[in-house]
Amino acid sequence: MTPDQYVSSIIAKYAQFVRPQAVVNAATAVAGLVTTWANQYLLQITYSGSSAKGTAIRGLADVDLFVSLAPNTPGTLSDIYTSLLNYRGLNPYSPKRQNVSVGVTYGGIKIDIVPARKQAGNTTDHSLFRSKAQTWTQTNVSQHINLVQTCGRLDEMRAVKIWRALHGLDFPSFYLELTILDALSGRRSGQLANNVWAVFSYLSSNFPTAVVIDPANSNNRISDDLTRAEKNSIAVQAAQSLAAPIWEQILW
User: Model-level pTM?
Assistant: First the structure.
């Protein structure tokens, strides 16, 4: 088996190319609860994150729900986030605080709920709360989804997300995806193993000091989502993977 074939086999093992019906059913049920919470301020609830982009990996969050709230939704973004986190309708599903989402588990299905307030006017820009930094940011999730869906690097992203999960790394998905696009800039497609190797090389060297900007908002530094120590942990693991003699010690 060639390196490309091996990496492809690992992707086939873990990647979730189609949402299972159980995930759809759980997401629909949770969306119903969130609809009640949002009341008259709800604009829409859509799939977002890796599931919408086509880079989902089994065993991580099964699906992300993006909750678009009206511009006149009262309270600060922190108030909105905390209100969802404490909403009694979600209590049976063990809601937990995450960076920009509230995580719940419904019938064994892990769902991340991202509440965001739409900016006023004819735009799809939204503001959302960043719990980790205790601040807010403006972004555009639909632009993020389109960027990843059309980038031509989905298999590399899937492979690195599997690597992240296997090695227990804290590496937010969109940050990871943008980093891969930077690492593979100018490189040919169709050389999967070599490209994943190039990503490891970039992670082990350039990544800890690289500034990554949200393509939907130049004032939003995605690279601030991790501390220097967290970035260094990723770099160390990437260096260890580069030193491994066989792919089976990197992805399995």
Answer: 0.92
